[in-house]
Amino acid sequence: MPNIKTLALNESREMRFRGGHSLCQGCGIPIVVRTVLNSIDTPVVVINATGCLEVATTRYPTTAWNVPWLHVAFENASAAASGVETAFRALIKRGALPDDKPITFVTFGGDGGTYDIGLQSLSGALERGHRFLYVCYDNEAYMNTGIQRSSATPFGADTTTSPAGTVSFGKAQQRKDLTAIAIAHHIPYIGQSAISHWQDLSNKVKFATTNMEGPAFLNVLSTCQLGWRHEPKDAISIARLAVETRFWPLYEVIDGHYRLTHEPLDNIPIENWLRLQGRFKHLFKPENKGLLNEIQTHVDKEWQRIYDLCESDKPYFKALEQSNQQLKINPSYA
Length: 334
Known about the structure:
Blueprint: H1 4-13, H2 29-38, E1 44-48, H3 52-57, E2 69-70, H4 77-94, E3 104-110, H5 111-116, H6 119-128, E4 133-138, H7 178-183, E5 189-194, H8 198-210, E6 216-221, H9 225-228, H10 235-244, E7 250-254, E8 257-262, H11 271-274, H12 289-312, H13 314-322
Parallel strand pairs: 1-2, 1-3, 3-4, 4-6, 5-6
Antiparallel strand pairs: 5-7, 7-8
């Protein structure tokens, strides 16, 4: 699996995502993009949904992209990726392109363009079985357009459309579990990662793209210093704490089998993570103690659900290791 030297070597050979963009100081998105692209050995084609990444990297007449890149609209990145991937296979079938030079198709979208506006096109592309990797950089709100709440925004968060004040405590709904929705499509590979765990992300990208017999989906927690209201220098530590408090479990699902890729050693209270972000500061008023308890209860319940699923599949992965079989995706999913 890739290590930091491999990623650095890949970037020195071909800088697929360059500087000069206008993403904010402390933004987690460039970490996601560079880690993903530097973990793929084949040539890549990138399809980009509207959002922070697209807007901040393609201001006319400049671009930060050094690979073939396509943007169509907010809602149809997966549909565009489906068309590009299908055209590639059709050209190979016609003999217009060689069949021994694979290309990896990667789609990037934020939570607004993935959880909400682009969900229908994503669902269709996953169900049809197109061979592409979809990467959601999840910063938990519509950060590019003014920090409006999305269905990825956590319960209790203060946003411009779910403001905390005298009549509201912030977002009143629990966040959507998009990773579970992707799993429900029965695709070959789904993973959840975070910018704080670059090697975990790189390993998942490498496995998904090396064994690509169908669509793969990665949901990556990506901090936003503007929307989360924290110091830019704290981005990585806050993302790491989201993992260590078990708010954001790192796991993968391969051919329907669950596996934890990181298990926190200590049971750190969720309020340690919430306290570092201005969007949650109102929750620490005495009258909101019950909300903190509700959040902790939900985190514990969701962690236990995922942990139990992973535990039940341990014999499957252990049997593979004992038989010295290489873990691969079942082609029947294609």
